[in-house]
Amino acid sequence: DGTRIAFHSNRNLTGSNTDGNNEIFLWTQGVGFTQVTNTTGGDNAFPSINADGTRIAFHSNRNLTGSNTDGNNEIFLWTQGVGFTQVTNSTGGSSLYPSINANGTKIAVESTSNLTGGNPDGNWEIFLATIIQHTLTVTKAGSGTGTVISAPPGITCGADCTEVYPAGTGVTLTATADSGSTFTGWSGDPDCSDGSVTMTADQSCVATFLTNPRPDIKANGSDGPLTLSVGTNLTVTVALDPRDYTGQSADWWVAATSPFGLYWYTLDRGWVRSDAPIRTYGGPLFTLAPSEVLNTTSLPVGNYTLYFGVDRLMNGALDFGQLSVDSVAVTIQ
Q1: CATH topology for 134-211?
Q2: Strand order in the sheet with 55-60
Q3: CATH fold of the domain at 4-131
Q4: Is the pLDDT of residue 271 over 90?
Q5: Which pLDDT value is given to residue 222?
Q6: Rounded Cα distance, 222 and 1, in Å
Q7: Nearest partner of 129 among 91, 90, 81, judged by Cα
Q8: Residue of 173, 183, 175, 176 lying closest to 151 (CA atoms)
Q9: pLDDT, average across residues 44-68
Q10: Which residues contact 53 (CB under 8 A, 6 or more apart)?
Q11: Collapsing DSSP states into helix, strand and coil, what is residue 117?
């Protein structure tokens, strides 16, 4: 589109070419220079850029991808956000002077190598390389919400859940749940199981987000903050909507901070003073109608915060990374 120019130079245009090697550079309107290759010795030259400036074909005798250990002159493709792909791979001969088409999927090249089996005499011939590409599609499942991004860039799902990558590209997907949701894992094609895929074929990966349990704690029917006079009745209730986690084993916690320390509510002993967490209940999550955990008129003057939470890892320990919690603040004056 005329806003980018690819060229080769042995000058130190960006501060990264102190050895004066022939490197590929990209000039972008309004941005300036980017050094695309950075090698020691050898030659990187004669770049050809596609229409939108996101792909550059060039020849090089450097081992840019790990597949040119013999230092032969080969054709390479640089893709923005992805990196280098080695297009030709021959022993002896030379592949030079590439010319890439507008959409970056075909490269014409001069070569003395026998790239197709039809050039056994090693004559200079014109070859056409078609860049094999594969499509990565991300789908989100479950009632929760979240975003998936990719490295190399291309997917922000969200809105953009599909990207085309050159064959062989390794892509890492990262899923981040929104507040109130949890990312529970990958499914889809077999290579998606850990969120890292290699684009040897079209791939379809599914990220599952579940809606977290919703605990609710109220003081005198209010979410607070609540201010009461000394001697006024205070009734605290807890309720739970397990949402996507109905039946999953979890730890339940009811606690309160007070002017006199930290208290925990237990089913068998009521409220217990302890600096260490004491679990209220361990077992399956279920729909809990509002249930009373405190009914008193005898709280002294001071500030109190009461908490009700469930953590989805049932082990008797308070796992904050798995915790869904609600709180209510009460002041007695």
Answers
A1: Ubiquitin-like (UB roll) (3.10.20)
A2: 44-49, 55-60, 74-79, 83-86
A3: Neuraminidase (2.120.10)
A4: yes
A5: 96
A6: 61
A7: 90
A8: 173
A9: 96
A10: 1, 3, 4, 6, 26, 28, 80
A11: coil
